[in-house]
Amino acid sequence: MMFCENCGKQIPDNSTFCEECGAKTGGEIAGQAPPPPPRSERYVPTSAKLPQSYYEQPKQGKGWIIYLCAVFAFILLLVGAFFVKEYLDNKTPSGENPPAVEQTNEQEASEPTEQTPPEPKNAYEDYRGYTDTELPSIGDFFWFTEDVKWDGLPAGRTAITDFGSIAGYWKAYTETISTFEGEEEISKWFNAEISGDANQASFTYHTKGFTGLSGIDGTVDISHEDGGNLKGRFSDGQLVLGDIVSKGIEVIIKDFYTLNGQQYAVGEVKITSGEKEHIVLVRP
């Protein structure tokens, strides 16, 4: 009895090939057909039983390596996209403008600068751009109602004694002087103009103005009322207007002065009935 050297199967003596695996077992016998081609080149029937060592060999393939590479590449792509987004978000935060670019000297030179208002062309016709078209308000006279009225004229003022320096448009204010406690004070604020010359001065009440009572909120528009005019003269720094006997009214503005770039005037109005009023001027 013989045994196949390849698969160990018992085969008949003098067999040239193993009936089990087809492996060559011995030398050629005279007159016998040539041996079959090598195992790797011949067809092995499906039903043929292969040696156990064939089934135990691991199947080698590269498919799983390709799959892992694809997964790894996809993960890298996601991570890269995340960091790119974080970088862009941090560079320009949402809801905020990008950092301003520093201006060059050329840009700074092109920007407009604040201009100083021009000086008056002529004090007789206008003072620092103020005209009777600008409506005064009660707030224009707080310097008097809250200060000078109670504390007197301020220190550091410069008296005005030249008529040319007081001519022109003013904002004016009058207030009745109470003669007994509880009496209502009537206030008026309006536009006025001083014109003419020192010997023939003219003081004109313009029609634009408002009036109010102390302790009562709100004002009354007196723009519809006719303006008035008083004649007089300017001497020794005082402007005396009207005549209590012939006109029934006399206005004496006895203090004209300049303080901190503004002009002020303080005086008194007398009426035939015996009533008196404060009168003050300011410009611009």
Structure overview:
With 284 residues, the chain is of the alpha+beta class. The protein folds into two domains: 1-57, no CATH class; 138-283, Beta Barrel (Lipocalin). The protein is built from four helices and twelve strands, in the order ββααααββββββββββ. The strands form two sheets. Strands 4-5-6-8-9-10-11-12 form an eight-stranded antiparallel beta barrel. Strands 1-2 form a two-stranded antiparallel sheet. The radius of gyration is 58 Å and the shape is rod-shaped. Residues 27-33, 40-45 and 117-130 have low confidence and may be disordered.
Number of helices: 4
Low-confidence segments, given as residue ranges, are 27-33, 40-45, 117-130
Number of strands: 12
Give me the CATH superfamily of the largest domain: Quinohemoprotein amine dehydrogenase alpha subunit, domain 2
Write the layout of secondary structure elements.
Elements: E1 2-3, E2 10-11, H1 52-56, H2 63-91, H3 105-110, H4 142-151, E3 158-159, E4 168-176, E5 186-196, E6 201-213, E7 220-221, E8 228-235, E9 238-243, E10 249-259, E11 262-271, E12 276-283
